[in-house]
Amino acid sequence: MESIVRPGSLGDILFRCQIISENDIRAALDEQQTTGCRFGEALVKLGVVAQEDIDWALSNQLNIPYVRLKPTMVDTEAVALIPAALARQHNLIPLIVTGDEISIAIADPLNTAALAAVEKAAGCPVSVSVGLLREIREMQEIFYGPPEETDILGFESAAFPASVLSAINHDLTGAKFVDYLLLFVVQQKLSSLSLQPLGDGIVVVCRRGGVGREAGRLSPTHYPEVVMRVKKLAKLAGGEFTAKGAFAFGWKGRMIPFQVALLRGEGGDYLTFRMRVDASFPDSVADMGLPEATTARFAELAAAGRGMVVVGAREEEMRGRLMELYLQECDTAGKTVIMVGSGSPQGGRRFPRVPVPAGTEVGAVVMAALEHDPDILILEDVADGKVFAAACRAAQRGTLVVAGFSCGDGAGALQQLITFRDRHLLTPAHLRGIIVCAGVRTLCPDCRAAVPSPPNEAEPSFRSAGCPACGQTGYAGTRFLMDIIAFDQRVRELFESARDAGDVLGHLREHGWRGIAEDGRSLVAQGVISREDFMASLLG
């Protein structure tokens, strides 16, 4: 077992307690490698365990007691110290006061805001146990009584009619709140909508055209129910610092796909929703519909043979797909290819993958991989200076290094390289080029219409209202754009002395180079994409 999961990890705890088998662990690891999700999330997605099993294992991993609650375990003196509203807000129940300490059972032991609130209310330190949510609520019903009939969700907004607000606020499960927010995203064609815990409330922030604005506020009392509903919809595992998931929202007989990102904060979980258009990444460069010059530059970098090629995209998944696409164009016959990282580019199992164990420096893994004389070394993320320095040493040995950057265009990649150059981590002679990909949603041609352009914008603007042909989303698919910069002698010379990326890009544009930004503006003028999506996806 030591070779499959780390001692003391969630997988190890669940295996030793005979909750999961070795086959379950292997299936979860495969799911984790395929989707990039967390191990516990993979187990829940596969239906191997329930969320309760993960919570129990988490309590063991954190060395926090796990309790099965009964009324005899709850002391009314402890209950009297913690207000009902606070207990319900944070899904906890006081258990007992011993000496100068109060013991509680809580569904989320990592909720530091809840622990601080209990300590303040009780006036003493807090001892924590993990309890099942349903049992905590049963104890709340017994010792605090049922929630008052006047209790409401507490959502206020000028963007929704009074009838909608009434329906939302009288549903304490948060289901209607989530549904109406998703409908708001669809109808307003928002690029994103976020729930942000700030102090005494949850702020609803919507973004369109690269501009954010507040759309309402939610009381924190029932926010845990909202988060739980979203986690259930997107099958997000509990106890994770960050997670991503996907689900479908039904509207007018159609299922509209959404993605949600979760980030744990002190006052609660940050949630961001985005409507997504399902579009598979192209299987080859030829399928991307790129200009001939761009396709030729891609082929040139695929034939580099040695040195460093930077591959960039904002999203980790797209970056992985782009790396796989690059490998398809390379001549890998008879060559040793090693991939370092935990991601999972499409088709990545064709080549050996080296995951980085927790607590291990990626740079050390890179240097260890070089002992196996790889012809091509794939590094999924070299943002850390030590990792980038190790990548440069690999390139100096004659290995072709494909280095991953998180960036949205060639300018962003160039600027990161200039930063590494200024830190003396980079030898420009080994740079072969930059490949950056970005995706942007295309408007549905059946319901697309011109709209007034913003002030100081001469070019026309377009927007789609939604129709049966596009499932009421207003979108038809995704267009992929690329920035490709080949480092010839002149570009390398400019890079060595450049103050910023603009110095290099200015030279390239003088020689006919067009990047993602220029291609995006052309698509806006043609009505292929909206100005808002251009700004959010290609300039944001």
Automatic annotation (TrEMBL):
It comes from Geobacter metallireducens (strain ATCC 53774 / DSM 7210 / GS-15). GO terms for cellular component: plasma membrane. SUPFAM superfamilies: EspE N-terminal domain-like, P-loop containing nucleoside triphosphate hydrolases. It comes from the Bacteria. One of its GO terms (molecular function) is ATP binding. The keyword Metal-binding does not apply. Residues 252-533 form the Bacterial type II secretion system protein E domain. Keywords: ATP-binding, Nucleotide-binding. It holds the Pfam family MshEN. InterPro entries: P-loop_NTPase (IPR027417), T2SS/T4SS_dom (IPR001482), T2SS_E_N_sf (IPR037257), T2SS_GspE_N (IPR007831). This is PilB/PulE/GspE family ATPase. The keyword Nucleotide-binding applies. Belongs to the GSP E family.
